[in-house]
Amino acid sequence: MILDDFSLAGRVGLVTGAARGLGQGHALALAEAGADVAVLDIFDCAETAAKIRDLGRRAITLQADLSKATPEDLAGFVETAVAGLGRLDILVNNAGIIRRQPAAEHSAANWNDVLTINLDAVFFLSQAAGRVMIAQGSGKIVNIASMLSYQGGILVPSYTAAKHAVAGVTKALANEWAASGVNVNAIAPGYMATENTRPIREDADREASIAARIPAGRWGTPRDLAGVLVFLASAASDYLHGAVIPVDGGWLTR
Ligand code: NAD
User: Fold this and answer.
1) Is 183 in the pocket of ligand 1 (CB under 6 A)?
2) Which atom, in ligand 1's list, is nearest to the CA of 43?
3) Could you list the residue range(s) of the whole structural domain that residue 64 is in?
4) Residue 195 C-alpha to ligand 1 middle, in angstroms?
5) For position 171, what pLDDT does the model report?
6) What is the pLDDT of residue 14?
7) Which of 30, 117, 24, 19 is nearest to 74 (CA)?
8) 215-238 as b/e: b if 16+ CB within 10 A
């Protein structure tokens, strides 16, 4: 039956940036759908792990700074997840940072930090997970893109460069791995109420003008992404490759 195709029972996921915000939401959505989940963050993921266990699923936590992780370190995180939970079926590349600074002054440090976390870690973690998934003949990689995978944004050139590249890497990996039973797709969230967007939400005029431009009339929440995430992580999306799916309250269509 069709709803069985969305079940993640017996699957194992790895979610980066899972201590809070959208990443915590992704981890809990996978667990609600039946998966055991390894959660990675620079901060302690104990709260997310406790919530996963409350749902009756297994969880392991990995604490690491993705800005300092080498490709070998990233492969090690995949090995830890496989060793701890027995296999790896789903990777959600969610961890990301944003640095707001005008392009004319945008520092090398901001450029490098954003590109390292938002792009390099996405590629090399996907590479390590992809090797496991290709060998087992199945797997789901979900990258978290952005409206700035389509648009230029203001004051965030490093973030825009990284998120455009995430869309490109999603398509490149999808092309190479589709025939091996590995699906690589992305979700492009719209404006979501998280720590990432707190500075612009604290500017009352900016907050209101963004909400007014969203056809749905409100900012998104982590829960708004759960349905698409479970779809992309499950057998229901087995013939979907290289898609970048906006979940944005209609922002892009306006
Ligand atoms: P957030 O800042 O609340 O969460 C990001 C998570 O990544 C945090 O738990 C943080 O600790 C972790 N992280 C940051 N740097 C890290 C590092 N060096 N090593 C390991 N973990 C690190 O932000 P969020 O809004 O939940 O963002 C999650 C993802 O969604 C990001 O990729 C972001 O670009 C993307 N996104 C967010 C929005 C939005 O409106 N909030 C919109 C589009 C895309």
Assistant:
1) no
2) 11
3) 2-246
4) 8
5) 99
6) 99
7) 117
8) eeeebbebebbbebbbbbbbebbe
pLDDT confidence of residue 163:
99
Residue 53, C-beta contacts closer than 8 angstroms, at least 6 positions apart: 59
**Does ligand 1 lie within 6 Å of residue 220's CB atom?**
no
Q: Which of 8, 66, 65, 72 is nearest to 37 (CA)?
A: 8
Residue nearest ligand 1's atom 34 by CA: 96
DSSP 201-220: HSSHHHHHHHHHHSTTSS-B
**pLDDT under 50 in the chain at which residues?**
none
Task: Compute the half-sphere exposure of residue 174: CA atoms within 13 Å on the CB side of its CA.
Answer: 21
Residues 6+ apart with CB under 8 A from 238: 183
User: Ligand 1 pocket check: which of 126, 170, 196, 244 to mutate, most ligand atoms within 8 Å of Cβ?
Assistant: 196
Amino acid residing at 137:
G
Does residue 254 form part of some domain?
A: no
Q: Please give the pLDDT value at position 66.
A: 98
Residue 51 CA, chain-centre distance (Å), reads 19
Count of structural domains, the chain: 1
Reply yes or no on whether 159 is catalytic. Answer: yes
85 lines ligand 1 (CB under 6 A): no
Ligand 1, atom 10, lies closest to the CA of: 17
Q: Give the domain CATH number at 57.
A: 3.40.50.720
pTM of the model: 0.98
